[in-house]
Amino acid sequence: MSDGTELWLIRHGETEWSLNRKHTSRTDVGLTEHGRQRAEELRDYLAGTEFAAVFTSPMKRARETCTIAGFGDVAKVDEGLMEWDYGVHEGRTTAEIRAESPGWSVWKDEIVGGETVERVGERADSVIERALAAGSGGRVALFAHAHILRILGARWIGLEARKGELFVLGTGSVSVLGWERETRVIEGWNRGFEG
């Protein structure tokens, strides 16, 4: 049954590591100048939008995006919005990993020292529950990271966590999860601000 709550998924702005396509989870990197500009564009885009609740990952890049976008004073940190723990692959690109393990995919292969995709899916399910509880039929903003938000989108519409591979998210993007009557739907995905 729908209470009408919408989840607005907001990916943080560009970092040096996202620019260079490095897997970034627990490494606490900040935004680039371009990333800060994108967060300002988010502020303009979201101006006047009312949220029943705002949650952010504890990582600097998400908190900084949230603050620049104008919601830092009301946001609550949610550990469930942490990015996928990439274990031994932290700070490495897919190309670097594939040089050692041809065909490797974060979506299909074991993450040594990190999280399984199923575990990230469980975290996403918990975030959804908390967001719905806080939403009261309104909008809830979630400032976080590419993979956790992709998985959250998949879980919202009843797909297994691994199917997050089917969704792409640019830095500084906005996606909206909502309802068509009682069915969970994706209302908008990967709204970017590139000129």
Keywords:
6 strands, Histidine phosphatase family protein, protein histidine phosphatase activity, 195 residues, alpha/beta
> Helices and strands, in N-to-C order?
EHHEHEHHEHEE
Radius of gyration: 16 Å
| Spatial order of the strands forming the largest sheet | 3-2-4-1-5-6
Q: Roughly how many Å apart are the termini?
A: 39 Å
CATH fold topology? Rossmann fold
> Can you identify the CATH class?
Alpha Beta
GO molecular function: protein histidine phosphatase activity
Pfam family, one: His_Phos_1
Protein name: Histidine phosphatase family protein
EC number: 3.1.3.-
Secondary-structure blueprint of this entry?
Layout: E1 6-11, H1 16-19, H2 33-46, E2 53-56, H3 60-68, E3 76-77, H4 94-100, H5 117-135, E4 139-144, H6 146-156, E5 174-180, E6 183-191
Parallel strand pairs: 1-4, 2-3, 2-4
Antiparallel strand pairs: 1-5, 5-6
Helix pairs in contact: 2-3, 5-6
Report on this model:
The structure is a single chain. The protein has helices at 16-19, 33-46, 60-68, 94-100, 117-135, 146-156; strands at residues 6-11, 53-56, 76-77, 139-144, 174-180, 183-191. The chain is of the alpha/beta class. The protein has one domain (6-191): Rossmann fold (3-Layer(aba) Sandwich). Strands 3-2-4-1-5-6 form a 6-stranded mixed beta sheet. Substrate binds at residue 61.
Task: Give a brief outline of the structure.
Strands 3-2-4-1-5-6 form a six-stranded mixed beta sheet.
